[in-house]
């Protein structure tokens, strides 16, 4: 037994360790419980009683020698690894000042819109951006041959053939959330639906293929056009200032009847006329109207008992008017010079 101990002492001394693989091999052979030293401890019970004490001391000394060598080279490997990944700093360089970021202007305006409508009792609803034709068009009273269904306006994902309502697309407005809300909840309903929408538009200073909308829906008994006017009148005053004037123009939408476009006095010229408002003194901010009875019935709501109004506006349009931004592309270009203008707002 003593001869084996002496041989393993020599093996430990001669074992070369220069990388992690060799260190692991050394651990398995000499430090681990199933290594050669562990085997010698298992054989200790076969040693004569009078020799067992001395042999046991030699085995403990051997085990300690193996552990000491392992710990030494493990520390060297760890120190080498830390040194290899250490980053050298040039302490002569000037300090980089810590700068606070700012909230994106679209996020600021979205939060303000939600705040204003929350004061009037509107909650916030959300829905999928990848939608079926049924929720995006059919349930909203769009005829099958309506131009908005054509590829130049809508990003279709899958044309399933047969029933057009089964086609899949990127939603072109957040009206799909209105349909889902009316299907899943009973009146009274009072909610706004902010979110991203997509249309196949040429990108320019006034248009983009991706933008943000916020739509609103109010369905209850005895809801009239006056309720719609009062709601949007209050919104315009809160968003743009108490001096803002509001104008309603007759319009057409498949899902509302009667329908109206909403204009406010130009914030640049204060209604006097300039190139921004095309010298009319007015700029459009939203479309609106009373929910068509066909839409209510499609969602399982009795149009003889309930009425409602809906409206929709582009968050980019509201932001451009509020902060007098003239190029829509600035919102998505991540130009720090543009974004820093909104620090502290």
Quick description:
The protein contains eleven helices and ten strands. It is α+β, with helices and mostly antiparallel strands.
Please characterize this protein's 3D structure.
- By secondary structure, this protein is of the alpha+beta class.
- It is built from eleven helices and ten strands.
- The chain has helices at 2-14, 20-31, 36-43, 49-85, 105-119, 133-136, 175-184, 225-240, 293-298, 315-323, 336-339; strands at residues 123-124, 130-132, 156-158, 168-170, 189-198, 210-220, 246-253, 256-265, 282-291, 307-314.
- The longest helix has 37 residues, at 49-85.
- 27% of the residues are buried.
Which terms would index this structure?
three-stranded antiparallel beta sheet; 345 residues; alpha+beta
Distance between the termini: 82 Å
Structural class computed from helices and strand pairing: alpha+beta
Give the strand line-up of the largest sheet: 1-5-6-10-9-8-7
Specify the biggest β-sheet: 7 strands, mixed
The backbone outline, from C-alpha atoms, is elongated
